[in-house]
Design a protein that fits this description.
heterodimer; A: alpha/beta; 2 domains; 6-stranded mixed beta sheet; 11 helices; 34% helix; disordered C terminus; B: mainly alpha
Amino acid sequence: MAPVEIRNLSKRFGHVEAVKNLSFDIEAGRVTGFLGPNGAGKSTTLRALLGLVRPTAGTATFNGLRYEELERPSTRVGAVLEDAAFHPGRTARNHLRVMAVTGEHPLERVDAVLAEVGLTEAANRRVKGYSMGMRQRLAIASALLGDPEVLILDEPTNGLDPPGIAWMRELLREQAERERAVLVSSHLLAEVAQSVDDVVVIAQGELRGQGTLEQVLGGDTEPATEVRSQDNDRLARALQEHGHGVQGNGDVLLVLGATPDQVGAVAEKERVHLTGLAPQSRSLEQAFFALTGGETVTSAETATSAETATDGEKA
Amino acid sequence: MSALLRAELLKLRTTRTFVALVAAALLLSLLVVVLTAVLGDNFTERGVKSLFTADFTGLFILLLGVMGMAGEWRHRTITGTVLAAPDRLRLLAAKVLAYAAAGALLSLIVTVTIMLVGTIILSVRDQTTVGLLDLEDVLWRNLVVAALLGALGVGIGGLIRNQVVAIVGILVLQFVEPTLFALVPDVGRFAPTSTAPSGIIQLVIGDDDPGDLLTPGIAVVVMLGWIGLFFAAAGVRLRRFDLV
């Protein structure tokens, strides 16, 4: 029995069928990327799994038990949802103390997870003064409090700076190495490609692909690079002058036919300061595009908007 | 349940809201008691007892209960709370008990303080004071009312969810209920936020003037009925609600 099993899951909101007959498993010791465009039904699926929304049909279970049936659920499942919220007047330490008491965890775990997410120094500050990245780290600390067997993260890199994103990748791998089952939804394919073993792709509420990253999205290996800079317009023009295709015009550019080294060289020549640089398989993008019926997730506009927008099914 | 209850009490202690409401209730109640004790004359035993029931704990604990539950939606913390405690009815029950306890504590602090200060002022002015047994009688009635109103506040907050609407509604009821009681006492005396609680308090002022209020025993039962009603309605709504 897999740690997480979703069987024939469907959820309808009024006339909108957000999730349609979805089935997949998550295995222990692996990081599984849960991919789909905004409004694909990712958040609804995760919330059904966590007992926050009632499925119209089907089941979502942890070792055969629904989330509500788990004894001390925070020792079995840790979750970070996209809109993690905290009482603004409570300090991070006190938030975690409340969570520890609720989950019947030893209070020593509070300082341990604060250290793990790098919030020890800010632990006694009220959350209302926290940046988005700090809130995200606090949400992750809450999820880790019970040292759970399953970790579910909905868009966990939102608000994190590049070092934070790198830290997140390490965390995901470390959890998998400890035989934890990790399910992470993301709209940034480059981040998923570097962190996950398996992928589940959905669009319009339906399963479009499932398996290892190579099985589902693998293909030719023409290089591509995702880049963020302080002057994307100038960088895009320069890259195009060097013969590279460039997609997106927000805070993320996808450069086709170029390795990170080549993009870095152009940026250096143009004296454009880079804030993020990551290799990406072009085929990954194209395969995803094909799987989701033309709805891509890696363009700059979705990368930007998804940080604040909620999925369509929540409206 | 005990872990949930401890967590809810910890939540109360780790924001400034509870301290602020204790301070506000204490200051307002002290102001009324000090002014009355200093400026009033010819106090009777009944008047002194009445003075010590004139605290503002009830309103404040009612508002605290509303904020404790409706605030989960206002601050969008309800998702995290339900994730930590997926049995939503147990969660609601823990909140009800926690705010009942908080109400009793708030009332204990306020009532003991106003009794102490009021008695000192009245003694210095050679006015009538009341004995320990009478003070104890006033105290437990105040505690019961505050505990019941704390629990009621959670039920109201769970049902209405919009914190501003719930608070404004309660403030409006503070005017509507006495008016209803004056116009139609047979109906008004059952009202939950002020007239039914007054039934629990009323006999403290003597058996000679029970008025149209409910007797304390019946008033407690009526209040428990209101709490049960709001708890059931809030519970049904909470269980059916998709947290998207």
